Each structure stands twice: as structure tokens, then as C-alpha cells.
Amino acid sequence: MARWLALVALLLSIGTVVGYMALLNALVMVRPVWYLSALVLAVLIATSAVWRRRGGVTVTALVISVLLLGLAGYFNFVIARVPDTPSALVVGRPAPDFTLPDSAGRQVTLSEFRGKKPVLLVFYRGYW
């Protein structure tokens, strides 16, 4: 029974990483809670396997599962973080002037609208 638990833990942890990479390559958004939860579950299963019987397979499954969970946590909380930069926007002050293309490709400058009509700025933070 312990070996089966160890194999399930290995399959779950390695499958989670492989599945995450495949979805990432397909540009599908994967919420961190999904893959981190799957890796935590793999660690718990591997721990249960080691608890039942210590052996090469069970300990290896636990080590690999913990290692992959640690790497995923490091990736999610350290590497993939958006860098902290001071904001150029201050509440109550006018937005800095900029020029960007609109949906039709024409260049539009913010100062063209200042005082004439309300402007709503929407910032999309990509997820990758």
C-alpha cells in the first residue's frame, strides 16, 4: 500500500508540473492555487506513504514532491512577481500625458481630451 501511495504522489507531483508547463505553453491561465494545492496534496500523500513504510520508493517520492513544491513556490512567490516600482500616478493629481494607438491604430494623446470629456484609463495586467 505504501508503494502505491508513493507512486500516486510521484505521478501527481510530476503530472502537475508537466500539465502546468503544457498549459503555460498554450497560453492558458493557471491560477497558482490550483498547482500549489496539487503539489501540497502530493506531499501529503508521499508523507502518508513514508509514515506507513520507509523505503527507497516512499522516501524518493517525498523528496521529489517536496522539491517540486518548493520550486513551484519559489517560482510563484519570487520569480513571477511583478517588480515593485514607484507609481507615477498619485491620487488627486492629473495623469501624466501620453500617446498611444487606439483600437483603430490612430495615435491618441491624453491631453487632447483634458477638460473636454471624461477619460477612463484601464490597465490590463497580463498573466503569463
In short:
With 128 residues, the chain is mainly alpha-helical.
Please render the helix and strand layout as text.
Blueprint: H1 2-25, H2 32-52, H3 56-79, E1 99-101, E2 107-109
Antiparallel strand pairs: 1-2
Helix pairs in contact: 1-2, 1-3, 2-3
What does this structure look like?
With 128 residues, this protein is mainly α. The protein has a domain at 2-79. The chain is 54% helix and 5% strand. It is built from three helices and two strands, in the order αααββ. The chain has helices at residues 2-25, 32-52, 56-79; strands spanning 99-101, 107-109. The chain has a two-stranded antiparallel ribbon with strand order 1-2. Strand 1 and strand 2 form a beta hairpin. Helix 1 (2-25) runs antiparallel to helix 2, helix 1 (2-25) runs parallel beside helix 3 and helix 2 (32-52) runs antiparallel to helix 3. The longest helix has 24 residues, at 2-25. The chain is elongated. The two termini are 39 Å apart.
